[in-house]
Design goal:
531 residues, alpha+beta, Porin, 16-stranded antiparallel beta barrel, four-stranded antiparallel sheet, 40% strand
């Protein structure tokens, strides 16, 4: 396009000069004009030669592997260039792709041919290190600390553009789309009863990451599909699972920060607050996540060091759903701190940390237990199955550690309530319950048939969690692999030991289904496609 504009400028300039009245031009003026026209024609000839060279190089480049993305209704292609993703702190650091798409010489989201314009492109799913780079297959992404992950993605884009001598256009927003589609085939034998089988679409999520319009502004909106079975939860019109699929916003937040210029950032909106990390190699969510992961409409202030190693932390506040009077106030919040380091080059990585939250009762698992009408369905349960007004707050503590030594990963997390609930709010064997949960896993990553593969074993434990319908012990093992790029295939066996049949519990004064005292067994095959 720029070459065509140059030709047009030459023609217009020549026409303007020829249109000078003849009677006003001397022979010397005519000679000068002739020299200028000849010089311009020589420049045009040179530019035409450059265009021919450029086209030849472009044809040669197209013979290599290419990728494409959409930019204002046109398809722009470019070669794939290898990169080395940062895999330290894998549960919080997106690996990106081992091959990143380019347009000419630059990395998304800047199109050099259309400077100053915004466009929509696709990118790696946030927090899933599954590329063919030997990264550890941490497959259960808990969606915690996504604001930090997004800031790291943007920092990576800035660094790549700066290395290429390219500056992002100011005052223009870019949209980076990513998502996942997940299906499962399941076999379950619950509490000694007859077995059941199922095939289900268990996850379909679309994330929109908006960069801009300022270097300091980023935002995320996450849409997900709900596979709720219907009126058993009191939310839909009938029990037809296939007819009741809904789409809802799970997260939507704005982050103010620029890790290239400052380690301090802030986030506000609806997101999972950073109490716990809940990383796992398993298909099933860890018991710690089922107990304590908390989604809120909150304000957060955080600190992230310039490099991945070092001390990091954040503090947040939110109102929460539970209350202690008839008036709702901002009365919940917490602190999260941690330290990352590596030793012996990149052989050993570690991330240790902990946190505190003012009231555990606002966690997703305590707000909704998934029970049907007539029994305790969490503090947020409707139709007399729950009560948000509690007698007192129940703070909770989190301690966690992740250690990677070569191809071996060890992780552990422990969460406990700081004190017991009032017997009017939650009980275990007639006394106030003090829920606790533990998750510990070991994994080994290797290549099988030139594909990244991992095997892992896990152990989980809870105490005083019968009211939340959690098992007292869990043993699990899983095989994960990635046959095709941006996909995961998993096969998991899970063995849950339930609370003894002699135990009983209540929540909000409402009874909880009695435990069978018998174990549950489940086999799950899962297939994920990421984009």
């Amino acid at each position: 396009m720029r070459f065509k504009l140059t030709k047009l400028a030459v023609v217009l300039s020549t026409a303007g000069m020829i249109s000078i009245p003849v009677f006003a031009a001397s022979q010397q003026d005519i000679n000068n004009l002739t020299k200028q026209v000849n010089a311009l024609q020589q420049q045009v000839s040179t530019l035409q030669t450059e265009v021919q060279v450029h086209n030849a190089q472009h044809k040669k480049t197209k013979s290599k592997t290419t990728t494409s993305y959409v930019s204002h209704g046109k398809v722009v292609t470019g070669p794939l260039i290898p990169t080395t993703p940062d895999t330290s702190g894998a549960q919080n650091t997106p690996s990106g792709g081992s091959l990143l798409p380019t347009s000419g010489l630059t990395y998304l989201p800047v199109d050099l041919d259309v400077p100053g314009q915004s466009f929509v492109s696709s990118g790696p799913y946030i927090g899933i290190p599954l590329q063919f780079s030997g990264s550890n297959l941490i497959i259960n992404n808990p969606s915690v600390n996504q604001d930090v992950s997004l800031l790291k993605i943007r920092k990576n884009i800035h660094q790549r553009l700066h290395a290429l001598g390219v500056t992002e256009e100011q005052d223009h927003a870019h949209v980076l789309l990513s998502g996942v589609v997940e299906g499962q085939a399941m076999y379950k034998k619950i509490g000694g009863s007859s077995y059941s089988t199922d095939i289900d679409l268990t996850n379909a999520t679309l994330d929109a990451y908006i960069l801009g319009p300022s270097d300091w502004l980023s935002s995320l909106m996450s849409l997900t599909y709900d596979n709720n079975i219907g009126t058993e939860s009191g939310s839909l019109a009938n029990n037809s699972r296939d007819l009741n699929s809904r789409v809802l916003i799970t997260q939507a937040f704005v982050t103010i920060g620029n890790l290239m210029k400052s380690p301090v950032y802030g986030t506000f909106g609806q997101f999972y607050v950073p109490f716990g990390t809940y990383s796992s190699n398993m298909v099933s969510a860890p018991l710690t996540q089922l107990l304590a992961r908390t989604k809120a409409r909150a304000i957060l202030l955080g600190y992230q060091p310039e490099n991945n190693d070092g001390l990091y932390g954040s503090a947040y506040v939110f109102r929460g759903d539970t209350r202690f009077s008839t008036i709702n106030r901002v009365s919940n919040g917490g602190i999260n701190v941690g330290y990352r380091f590596h030793l012996m080059g990149d052989v050993i990585h570690s991330d240790i940390g902990g946190g505190v939250i003012r009231n555990l009762a606002d966690s997703v698992g305590m707000q909704d237990t998934g029970n049907s009408a007539g029994i305790f369905n969490g503090f947020g349960g409707v139709n007399s199955t729950g009560n948000e007004q509690l007698q007192h707050r129940v703070p909770a503590y989190d301690a966690r550690a992740l250690l990677s030594i070569g191809k071996v990963d060890l992780l552990g997390e422990y969460i406990t309530a700081a004190k017991a609930f009032s017997p009017q709010d939650m009980t275990m064997n007639s006394v106030g319950a003090r829920p606790q949960a533990l998750n510990a896993e070991a994994a080994y990553t290797f290549d099988a048939f030139a594909r990244p593969t991992s095997v892992a074993i896990g152990y989980g434990m809870t105490k005083n969690a019968l009211a939340l319908q959690l098992p007292t012990r869990r043993y699990s093992m899983v095989l994960n692999t990635s046959i095709w790029r941006d996909t995961l295939q998993s096969l998991e066996f899970r063995h849950d030991i339930n609370y003894a049949a002699s135990n009983f519990a209540t929540g909000s004064g409402v009874p909880v289904p009695a435990s069978s005292g018998k174990p549950d067994n489940a086999i799950t095959a899962q297939f994920d496609v990421y984009f």
